[in-house]
TrEMBL record:
<dbReference type="InterPro" id="IPR037185">
    <property type="entry name" value="EmrE-like"/>
</dbReference>
<protein>
    <recommendedName>
        <fullName>Probable purine permease</fullName>
    </recommendedName>
</protein>
<feature type="transmembrane region" description="Helical">
    <location>
        <begin position="171"/>
        <end position="192"/>
    </location>
</feature>
<keyword id="KW-0813">Transport</keyword>
<dbReference type="InterPro" id="IPR030182">
    <property type="entry name" value="PUP_plant"/>
</dbReference>
<feature type="transmembrane region" description="Helical">
    <location>
        <begin position="82"/>
        <end position="101"/>
    </location>
</feature>
<feature type="transmembrane region" description="Helical">
    <location>
        <begin position="7"/>
        <end position="25"/>
    </location>
</feature>
<feature type="transmembrane region" description="Helical">
    <location>
        <begin position="306"/>
        <end position="325"/>
    </location>
</feature>
<feature type="transmembrane region" description="Helical">
    <location>
        <begin position="204"/>
        <end position="228"/>
    </location>
</feature>
<keyword id="KW-0472">Membrane</keyword>
<feature type="transmembrane region" description="Helical">
    <location>
        <begin position="37"/>
        <end position="61"/>
    </location>
</feature>
<feature type="transmembrane region" description="Helical">
    <location>
        <begin position="279"/>
        <end position="300"/>
    </location>
</feature>
<feature type="transmembrane region" description="Helical">
    <location>
        <begin position="139"/>
        <end position="159"/>
    </location>
</feature>
<dbReference type="Pfam" id="PF16913">
    <property type="entry name" value="PUNUT"/>
</dbReference>
<keyword id="KW-0812">Transmembrane</keyword>
<feature type="transmembrane region" description="Helical">
    <location>
        <begin position="248"/>
        <end position="267"/>
    </location>
</feature>
<comment type="similarity">
    <text>Belongs to the purine permeases (TC 2.A.7.14) family.</text>
</comment>
Amino acid sequence: MKMKTVLVIINCIILAIGNCGGPLMTRLYFRNGGKRIWFSSFLQTSGCPIILLPLLFSFLTRHRQQQEQEDTKTTLFLIKPPLFLASVVVGLLIGFDNYLYAYGLAYLPVSTSSLIISSQLAFTAFFAFFMVKQRFTPYTINAVVLLTLGAGSLALHADGDKLPKETRKEYIVGFVMTVAAAVLYAFVLPLVELAYKKASQRISYTLVLEMQLVLCFVATCFCLVGMLADGDFKELGREAREFKLGGSKHYCLVVAFTAVIWQGFFLGSIGMIFCASSLVSGVLISALLPLTEVLAVLFFKEKFQAEKGVSLFLSLWGFVSYFYGKIQSEKEKKKTQEAELSQLPATESFA
C-alpha cells in the first residue's frame, strides 16, 4: 500500500471522529450548563499540543537518517517564514470561525447546525473555483445547488426547532452565526490549498503538521484573548461545580475530550487538502454530517421534523451527485489517456 493511500485513510478516520464527535461534545457542554462561548471556541483548537508527538517522531527519524548519511545538522522545524506567516493568517481566521460556530451551536440543536454546515461545500466549491482554479462539472454544480437548498429549507420552519427556553431572536442569531461559520471555513479550505501551491518549499506531511500546529496555536491565542475580555476565567470554577452531568470531575472530562476530538477534525481536514484538494476535504466534511445528525437525534433526543428530512434528502442527493461526477470524470480521463497512447507511433523492433 502506498504511503499516500495510508495517509488518506488515517486522515479520513480522524476527520470522521472529529467531524461527528466535535459538535456532539460541544453541545454536551452547553446542554449541561456550559455558557461560555469564548471558552467553547478555545476548546476547538486547544488540543494542538498533541501534534508535537508525531512531529517529535518525524524529527527523530530525520535526525537518524541524516546521521547515517553524515549529513548536515537536522533542523528542528521545516516551515519557512512565508508559510509561517500564511499559517498565522489562517489561524486568526479559524479562531474567529471557532467563535461563530460555538455561538451558533449554543442556540441550535446539533442536527440543525450540521445541516446548515453542509452548505459549506457550496461555498468551498465557489472559493476553490476562483482561488485554486478548481474545475467545475455539471455534477459538481448540481451538488452545490442541492446542498444550498438543503440548508435553506431549514429556515422555513424555525419555530418548531428551538431549544427549551430559547427565544426566536436567539434561534435566528444562532442560525446566522452558523451560516457565517460555514462560509468562513469554506474560504479557509482553499486558502490553505493556495498556501501549499504558492509555498517556496516542498510540501511534506511533516510540514502540514507544522502548519497545523501554528494555525491552531494562533487560533487558540485569539480565543484566549476573547476569554480574557469576556471574563470567562472568573466563571469557569463556578460553572464546573454546577455542571449538571456530574460536577467538576465530569466537567473536566468533557472539556478534555472536546479539545482532543476537535483537534482530529482540524488535522483531518488540513491533511485531506494535502492528500487531495480543498474541495475533496469539503465534500468529506459534508458527507459525514448526516451521521452527526443521526447521532444527535439518538443521544440528545432532538426533534427531526419534515424540514430536516427534506434537508437531509437534498444533502445526500448532492453527495451522490458529486461522487458520481467524480467517477465519471475519472473514467473520461482514463479514456482520453488511452486514446492518446493509441495514437502514438508504434516503435519497430529489430532482431
